[in-house]
Amino acid sequence: MTEERQWETIKEFEDIFFEYYEGIGKITINRERYRNAFRPTTVHEISESLRICREDKRINVIVLTGAGDTAFCAGGDQNVKGEGGYIDKDGTPRLNILEVQKQIRSMPKPVIAMVNGFAIGGGHVLHVVCDITIASENAIFGQTGPKVGSFDAGLGSSYLASTIGQKKAREIWFMCRQYTAAEALEMGLVNTVVPLDQLEDETVAWAMKMQEHSPLALRMIKLGLNAELDGQLGLQEFAGNATLLYYLTQEAQEGKNAFLEKRKPDFSQFPKFP
Ligand code: S0N
């Protein structure tokens, strides 16, 4: 049975819960009526929460999930889909879920998808782009795009293929079948499967274990795994983090100090590692 945890509200939103517990920022899509399908408002709110997670020094690991015990997320809300995308409150069509995918990918902290039911369409892509997926036994996975007039040929296809292989990724998109949690585990689409009533305990246990480890090491591993797939943009992110590490050295500080003190820098004092 799930342990009772006192999740503290970080910020109130309309479509999501955004909560904190012992180093974990939890984002829960709260649209059970629509199998937690997202509309532009939902996506704006997830995006803002992810921005807060990135900046908040208390948060080391992020968990993304859906409310209730039926769905993680059923993708874009088809009720608000119009020409050019999903119609926002101001009448503008948006596909802003792609920004959220990028935020998850470049988040310098682990992001865990806690999949508690259907992960379908754009909801399936959301779990795919998370670093880790922990699924309940009742979870169902699949893409529907070619059936319902949409597709995600970006990370939803390419990163899916990197994760489970080209043949299986093509099958998922071409056939639009649904897969059980056991099948998902078998194909390497998820990391583990547990009974629904143990899902949060298991997810929190994974998050706690990650928090025992060096955050900088986890950050660099994530960036390195991304960089291999992301070409120059992956390299840009990786290099940005290498620069961050360099700034922390005496060697880099000597360069800056010499400039400010209007003298020639002395880099000879620093070790040259083999
Ligand atoms: C999830 C499914 C399989 C659950 O089936 P179940 O349990 O039989 O429930 P239902 O009776 O079907 O659903 C219960 C109520 O929930 C509503 N609902 C479910 N999903 C949605 C949804 N996505 N949008 C709006 N409403 C939804 C049902 O209508 C029902 O309501 P009532 O009671 O009033 O009838 C099943 O529900 C299902 O298959 N859902 C649809 C899944 C789907 O096709 N999603 C959209 C897929 N496309 C995307 O997500 C694309 C978005 C995207 O990420 C993207 C990315 C890159 C580039 C472009 C895009 C893009 O936006 O196109």
UniProtKB/TrEMBL annotation:
CDD domains: crotonase-like
Transmembrane segments: none
The reaction(s) this protein catalyses: 2-succinylbenzoyl-CoA + H(+) = 1,4-dihydroxy-2-naphthoyl-CoA + H2O
Cited InterPro entries: ClpP/crotonase-like_dom_sf, DHNA-CoA_synthase_MenB, Enoyl-CoA_hyd/isom_CS, Enoyl-CoA_hydra/iso, Enoyl-CoA_hydra_C
One Pfam assignment: ECH_1
Names of the cofactor(s): hydrogencarbonate
Residues annotated to bind hydrogencarbonate: 143-145
Residues at which substrate binds: 35, 74-78, 86, 118-122, 144, 150, 247, 262
NCBIfam families cross-referenced by the UniProt entry: menB, PRK07396.1
Family of this protein: Belongs to the enoyl-CoA hydratase/isomerase family. MenB subfamily.
Function: Converts o-succinylbenzoyl-CoA (OSB-CoA) to 1,4-dihydroxy-2-naphthoyl-CoA (DHNA-CoA).
Protein name: 1,4-dihydroxy-2-naphthoyl-CoA synthase
Organism this protein belongs to: Desulfobacter hydrogenophilus
This protein's encoding gene: menB
